[in-house]
Amino acid sequence: MSTSPRLAAVRRDWGHDETGCTILHIDMDAFFASCEIARHPELRGRPVIIGTGTRSVVSAASYEARPFGVNSAMPVATARRLCPNGVFLPVDMAYYRSISRQVFGVFEQVTDRIERVSVDEGYMDVSAALRQWDSPTAIGAWIRAEVERRFGLTCSVGVASNKLIAKLASTNAKPDGMLLVPEARQAEFVRLLPVRSIPGIGPASARRLAQWGVTTVEQLAQVDERRLAQVTGSAAHAHTLYLAARGLDERRVTPVTPEKSIGSERTFAEDTRDARTVAQMLLRCSDVVASTLRRRGLLARTITVKLRYADLRYATKSLTLGRPVNTAGAIYPRTLRLLERMLGMPDHALDRDARLPADIRLAGVSASGLVNAATTPVQASFDDLLGKDRGRAEQALDSIREKFGNGAVQLGLRSS
């Protein structure tokens, strides 16, 4: 469910010159909710909201729910207050992924140059396919019709010369539309948009830019690249924004995107300041992440802890390790040290009974900087030699879970 800003002024006819416009961005409309409506046609026309439980957040909402103010990432309790007559359904990721694979199978009938961004969106480079198709928009129209015919789902398509403009076009074509932006008019198109429309500009970046008087892409285009580097603190980010303000994007469609991170997070039944409760959650998440790393034959160099506070603020803190790891025995102690730093607590305070200085709603762990375990040489340390039995124990847990299910056995670790 996209929450990116949209502007009625840009959803118009920009002309019909498709020269060089070989990039399509396809975005399914309210995908999770639409999947549920497709298998429960009696829900059509009703406000369908994906997410249940007073502690959960909304994963998706049908377009009928949005006039009530319901959107993704909103607490389900808030959504129930705003839309008391809504149909609230649990998330069924196995079903959504199954439909997604079939939808992407439609795209594959056109080209193999497909970059899957998420379960419900992706890019296509159709330059080679134009030998068999009349035009990029003909491909977009066929995809939209075929997806609706086969699955009862709608999607929106952006057609442009690069990924940035194609994505912005599909966002502003929603729902169930297609928008072509000719290459000669892409700078004009993007400068009509608010700066928050640009992918990579989140709330924090938008606030920093606003302090410099930049709230629109047109204003962004007046800032030189050196000044943007001062504002963003990153020369690479500044260069990307400099190009984006001119409707340019150097990124290619990448059919196989290496996995960037593996994570696990959970919401507590009640907000808590109990250190033992939060530590136990970090242990469970570390175990899930480590097990997933081993199953996929990966090691991770960076560990990140994520917290969501009672007021729904998020915070993260990361640690890059000298040696990549894939065991909870290595990950979990680091998560405790990260948590202490995030909350301004003394080192090893969590090894003792402690009360946290803030109410925690959600805790999670992710691993990034992923490398192939089979091809990455790792020099064993003295700690590794001492902890070899622990590593074997985690591998044994993998075997048990594979045979009897993930809930068959739980890992128990001390904090240090």
TrEMBL record:
Keyword Aminoacyl-tRNA synthetase in record: no
Gene3D superfamilies, per the entry: 3.30.70.270, 3.40.1170.60, 5' to 3' exonuclease, C-terminal subdomain (1.10.150.20), DNA polymerase, Y-family, little finger domain (3.30.1490.100)
Pfam name, any one: HHH_5
UniProt keyword Phosphoprotein present: no
GO biological-process terms attached to the record: DNA repair; DNA-templated DNA replication; error-prone translesion synthesis; SOS response
Subunit-level organization: Monomer.
Protein name: DNA polymerase IV
Originating organism: Bifidobacterium catulorum
Gene: dinB
